[in-house]
Amino acid sequence: MFDQLHAYVVQNQTLSATLVSVLALVIAYFLALPREPVYPILPNVPLVDISEVKKGQVELGNLQDALATNCEKYRGQLWQLKARHGTVVVLPERFINELCYLPEEFVSLEAKNTDRFFTQYTRLTPTSIGHDPAHLLHCVKHDLTRNIGSLMKEISEEAEYAFNTSLGECNDWKEIALGDVLTRAVALISGRVFAGPELNRNPDYLQSIIEFTFVAFKAIEAISRYPVWLRPLAQFWVEEVRGIHRSLKQMERILAKVVPERLQLIAEGKAPSNLTTWHINSVPAEKKRDLTVHAHTQLVVSTAAIHNTTLLTTHIIFDMLARPEYIGPIRDEIADVLSQEDEDYLKKSSMPKLRKLDSFMKEAQRIHPLGLLTFERKVMQDITLHDGTVLPKGCCFAVPAYFMAMDPERWGNPEVFDGNRFLNLRGDNAVGGKYSFIETGIGQNDLIAFGHGPHACPGRFFLNNEIKVVLSHLLMNYEMKLQDGEGRPEDIVSADGIAPAYSKKILIRRRKNTA
Ligand code: HEM
């Protein structure tokens, strides 16, 4: 009897202890859960709700209309946009200057990205792998920009290789999907600058840097479908999130030989100038051999660089083919600039002379902004704006780039495509000066497509050279036209902005008078 009682008590004690442990684990799990960001709603500020959409509808397709209507209706005022991913305060441009120089402790691009891209699962920011973003930013902002001049020969060589290998002889008109051909060209050029000639034509490397953006965006979409409490577990079985980890591992394998060799070359003072070298030089001693941080940097910079560049270049070419009257004068300008060079490729110093091309590129970017919103930030501490409005901690804000680019009060005739618009505005201003492609601004006739202030796209100086090399190569060596009877392909308005009809076929053939 005593034995039975003892057994019962022991058994129940074990059961109770197990139950208590399970309960403690469940409580700990819920306490450790990242919170769904709660975006405070500003009182007395108009709220426009586009979050209620039927399944299958592209939610932010409504964003274009919502911006056009409400930026006009609330001109000069703040208003709030409630979208599926949260609420964002839409700011008129008069607030940008007082916000853009505030430190990260007040307004943060990183925190906005963390919320928006679920980076604790998707690992899309350096901080999400415990790495300081300053290294990546230093490489793009300083090393890449400073080295553009010495990289121009390689950029031109790679453009030539890319088009020769994709297009072949191409003596007769050939149908191509412009987006595909440009993606490969931009990836080869970017890879040459990010990893050098020993890797950029390696099919595994090339495929990794091209596909990572798609892998990343699928993972964001997939994890967002899970309730916040399940995400810490779901990350282990959601195939798309696992895809991110596979891509990172694959890039680590690709770099496994390169990084130690590069360290050796750096020690010998013989290292080539590219992102791999700059990043090794930038990180602290204990991370120099860390393949994870180098692999992550290669993929994250590729995500920022390759697809945006391809989409913008596709927009520009579609605009040229729809308005062939611009092509002759731009070609003459390129030929003239090339004839002044002592080598047969464009140098960094050639760029300020390509004024018609620069203006055309900027006008194409104005009419087809890749992002409808820009200058997106999260508020980290309450901020009082100059008119007394308080932006509370936790809210996100953005500036309506699309509306600013198409606002009749800023442009007079915003609907008209005028390839010489910025050429005429610019007068004698040098490149980098007002109204040139790389300039960002918030005044009359300024564009903010690259953001504004200290976080404005640091890749745009490289991009400016890269796009001009690609376009010059195509214009000087090939003829292109739209398919018979077709006008400029219709843009695709999506959750991310205004993309060109990427897979649309155009016709191309080698120019008769060139080799
Ligand atoms: C058409 C091409 C591109 C567009 C439209 C574009 C646009 C932008 C925009 C709007 C931002 C955010 C700015 C802000 O919020 O103030 C940004 C940031 C950034 N871009 Fe670009 N970009 C392009 C190409 C590139 C390229 C080629 C690179 C690298 C080589 C690059 C690297 C970056 C980086 C690293 C940031 C983050 C800056 C920071 O956190 O301070 N981008 N870009």
Automatic annotation (TrEMBL):
Belongs to the cytochrome P450 family. Heme binds at residue 457. SUPFAM superfamilies: Cytochrome P450. The chain crosses the membrane at residues 15-33. It comes from the Eukaryota. Pfam families: p450. The keyword Iron applies. It comes from Periconia digitata. Keywords: Heme, Iron, Membrane, Metal-binding, Monooxygenase, Oxidoreductase, Transmembrane, Transmembrane helix. This is Cytochrome P450. Its cofactor is heme. The keyword Iron applies. GO terms for molecular function: heme binding; iron ion binding; monooxygenase activity; oxidoreductase activity, acting on paired donors, with incorporation or reduction of molecular oxygen. Pathway: Mycotoxin biosynthesis.
